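Board work, copied verbatim: Major facilitator superfamily (MFS) profile domain-containing protein
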Amino acid sequence: MTAAAEDLPGQPIGAPGAQTSAAGAPSPVRETNGPAAVAILIYLGLSLQLLQVGIIPLLPQIGRAVGTTPATTSWLVTGSLLAGAVFLAVLSRLADLLGKKPVVVIALALVLVGSLIGCFSSSFSGLVVARVLMGAVLPMLALPEAIASDTMAPRRAQFTIGAIHTGTGAGISAGLLLGALAATGHASWRAFFVVGVVVSAIGLAAVLAGIRDSDVRAPGRLDAVGALLLAVGLVGVLLAITEGPTWGWTSGRVLASGLGGLVVLAGWLAQQRRATHPLINIRHLLSPAVRLPYAMTFLAATGIYSALSAVTRLAQTPKATGAGYGWSPVQVAWYALPQLLGSVMAYFVIRALVQRGRHVAALGVGTALLVISFLIYGPLVAQPGATLTALMIDSAGLAITLAVTQIVILRSVPKAESGIAVGLSVVLYAVGNSIGSAIVASLFGAYKVGRAPVPALSAYQLSFLVSGLAALVALALCAPLARRLRGSQTGV
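↓ predict structure ↓
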């Protein structure tokens, strides 16, 4: 590898589209955030997953408390996901126009209000409103990384982005523990919303006191029409994907929602090409150095559901069915440990390879770990020890892949567009996760243990096969990405 293919020592992550000097060389980043800000940004990533995952084990308890069916109660997750997609579409672009810090403050304030509503609401509709507002936490998978890219020197920024994704793994672990404790009666389900109040209030105070913003702003104004079209299109597609297994894939509601969403998204792409100040610069979106990491993010995300949610469901299925471990919710909390250990492993891989400019090598390790994990899951799914090991490998691979794809994207777009660029990667993450969840749900419905409403082991194995194939495609994309990055001299 030539020296030109390595990272430039003083190059900001946002290069080559970053500000340049008169000679055309990238201007060095004026570092405005230090170690305290690193800790705050990591905390924001942790809080995201805590508030996303923590409610899942509590859905049955909440359903009994407010008198709703499991299908209806699931809207506490679906509503938050759909709202999060809308918040991403709008807030990520506003962050480029107004500054990342004020938009993070707005998002955390919405989460705080939603958590307060959840603490005191006794009706299902009130809880849905609470979860919709809490969907504003989803941009915390994008904006902290953009802040690090914009306001820190390259080495510190890359370290911070890797550490943020380690923090998200810790957040998943904390969410599993919180949900397990509340689900077993050790605490009320309202404890989840109380934790949401505390977590968002601490984050809000920390950001106001300890984060400094970049002075780089995108020109123009918010493309309101583009934001509306993107939000409506995403909601339509995500709604069809998430509700397809329940409503039926050929039902009028699913077809109308899915096809309508795709038509709106096609209209959005056409509108973006004509807009004076588009929501997303399509030229950057179609750049190979960006679209390949986007594709890898999407592919990696398809396996998230089968890697954690499906396995924890398997663990709680009674042994008598022949397709479960018969664990209690507290025993399921053991899955928090490999999730945390895998995320910590990921940090050391990112530090060892990304800090030396070996971005594609890191992606190769990350996606290969995903493939290995599903190779373990499939044939050994009936063995608890094997699934615990596979989850550790999978969480490491996922954290590496998501962190490094975001670093590559941030290196390939101007700093003034870092918010929306990394925000779109999170949108693709959400879409991939939803598609993976829908595939698993469909397989669970098709392959059951006799007439019991219990998924057979073959349903789990087929879902692992699909997820493993998606990870294998992501691994294969490393080769063309390496050629593109080497050709553009942005490091491999």
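The chain has three domains: 34-222, 224-278, 284-492.
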